[in-house]
Specification:
The protein is an alpha+beta fold. The chain has one domain. Strands 1, 2, 3, 4 and 5 form a 5-stranded mixed beta sheet that branches. A hairpin with a 7-residue loop joins strand 4 and strand 5. The longest helix has 12 residues. It holds the Pfam family DUF397. This is DUF397 domain-containing protein.
Length: about 70
């Protein structure tokens, strides 16, 4: 679960519990109806803003291994 940020507050970013120090990871935060996603090591690189449908589509694709094609 992602902690919800409130209007006027900075987003409450959360990193995955299985993230290892120095590993590749993203952070997420909820801002109103959107989920924000950013690189945990490069906060200045910007972020993605996803609506609830896009967020569910992304998390389902990750769980199903649809994005594992390296």
């Amino acid at each position: 679960m992602v902690d919800r940020s409130y209007r006027g507050e900075s987003p409450k970013w959360r990193k995955g519990s299985s993230s290892e120090p120095g590993g590749e990871c993203v952070e997420v935060a909820v801002a109103g109806p959107s989920v924000l996603v950013r690189d945990s090591r490069d906060h200045g690189a910007g972020m993605l803003e996803l609506d609830s449908v896009q967020w569910r589509t992304l998390t389902n694709a990750i769980r199903n291994g649809d994005l594992d094609g390296r």
